[in-house]
Design goal:
The protein is mostly beta strands and 296 residues long. It contains two helices and 21 strands. The strands form four sheets. The chain has a seven-stranded mixed sheet, with no helix packed on it. It is elongated and about 75 Å long.
Length: 296
């Protein structure tokens, strides 16, 4: 008769395996027990909390765990319902960006485990023969935190416009400066040069030098810079006017003495009139209001 030797360790191993499976709640064939699913719909809003009609070409969602460590990136569109499955945790943090892939800003490349604090969207630095900082795309940003207990059917992620637009018209410039050629330019300074993943403006001072040209209207010639995107500046900006490398004039305040403010999500028109006494007027309008330029 043969003798069967019993492995005394086998029952212990089976008990340990059963205990670990019950503890984690995860089994190989049922990942629903390991992950939690959230469903989002992204909507874009203007400075007055109205839904925007301007196209948002794409939306990037950056998902972080309850320790603010990066999990994954998901691409979606405005109005689409998107599903996000992540490892179970007490909460998740989702940062949404609109139009981030337009190419006119530097977006971060995050890897799993990166902290949310490392996320930064920077203005493009360009060559010395052009503007020191490029004009960004029509950027939108939103940031929400969702607790694991908050299992709503569909979670709204609102994103808001984070850039401003500015147009500048200078009347009587050649007579004031004393140069008859068209070799003029402006520089607008300064704003922050980046936006972090919390939606805060940061980074060193940015300077913009958008292209302009002379136009004649109603018998008057004016140098006009069409609307361009920039980051906002609530403390006011300066507008330097150059003929070649010679500084002709610097505008820092409007006629009533208040600074030239660039508001988030809105359009600003600045008119500098050198005919007679120097007059500077500033008008702020909703996005898309007078971006084609004002009459002079």
């Amino acid at each position: 008769m043969g003798i069967v030797k019993r492995n005394k360790q086998l029952p212990r191993l089976l008990c340990l395996l059963t205990f670990m499976t019950a503890l984690t709640g995860c089994i190989k064939d049922d990942l629903d027990d390991c992950e939690q699913e959230y469903r989002f719909t992204v909507r874009a809003y203007d400075a007055d909390n109205g839904e925007v009609t301007t196209p948002v070409n794409e939306v990037l969602l950056y998902v972080f765990d309850d320790n603010l460590q990066f999990i994954k990136e998901i691409e979606t569109t405005i109005g689409a319902s998107v599903s996000v499955s992540v490892p179970r945790s007490e909460s998740i943090h989702v940062v949404g960006w609109g139009n981030l892939k337009g190419g006119n800003q530097v977006r971060p490349t995050l890897v799993a485990g990166d902290h949310k604090d490392t996320g930064l969207v920077r203005l493009n630095a360009v060559t010395r023969t052009a503007s020191p900082h490029g004009s960004p795309d029509d950027l939108f940003h939103g940031d929400i935190t969702i607790n694991a207990q908050d299992m709503r059917e569909n979670i709204l992620l609102p994103i808001h416009r984070k850039v401003s637009s500015l147009a500048v018209t200078v009347i009587g410039l050649k007579q004031y400066a004393g140069f008859d050629d068209d070799d003029y330019r402006i520089e607008v300074h300064e704003t922050r040069s980046a936006i972090d993943f919390y939606g805060q403006y940061c980074g060193n001072g940015a300077l913009y030098s958008p292209a302009g040209a002379f136009h004649t209207q109603n018998g008057k010639e004016a140098y006009r810079v069409s609307a361009f995107h920039m980051l906002p500046q609530n403390s006011g900006v300066s507008i330097d006017i150059f003929h070649r490398s010679t500084l002709v004039y610097t505008a820092t305040t409007q006629g009533n003495g208040s600074p030239i403010i660039i508001q988030e999500g809105r359009h600003t028109d600045v008119v500098i009139d050198f005919t007679g006494s120097i007059r500077i007027t500033v008008s702020i309008s909703p996005w898309g209001g007078n971006q084609g330029g004002i009459e002079f």
